[in-house]
């Protein structure tokens, strides 16, 4: 896409299940409670995969930008 912004939920990157759902439409309570813990760092393999995906879709930003 030509969009300048893409949203890629970290829950999807990490392959998390129902426990990581952020928003359940039609429910009043329990939304927006999940947080990525600092105890859950991205693995080296996942980091490489994310970088490859960003590069493939031309969304990798250089440090100079």
Question: Strand percentage, roughly?
Answer: under 5%
Helix content: 25-40%
Specify the number of helices: 2
Mean pLDDT: 82
Q: Name the poorly predicted regions.
A: none
Using only CA atoms, what is the Rg?
15 Å
SSE layout and pairings?
Elements: H1 10-14, H2 44-56
Task: Tell me what you see in this structure.
This protein is mostly helical and 65 residues long. The chain has one domain (10-56). 28% of the residues lie in helices and 0% in strands. It is built from two helices and no strands. The protein has helices spanning 10-14, 44-56. The longest helix is centred in the last third of the chain and has 13 residues, at 44-56. It is extended and about 40 Å long. The chain starts with 9 loop residues before the first helix and ends in a 9-residue tail after the last helix. The mean pLDDT is 82.
Short description:
With 65 residues, this protein is an all-alpha fold. Helix content is 28%, strand content 0%.
Keywords:
single chain, 65 residues, mainly alpha, 28% helix, 0% strand, extended
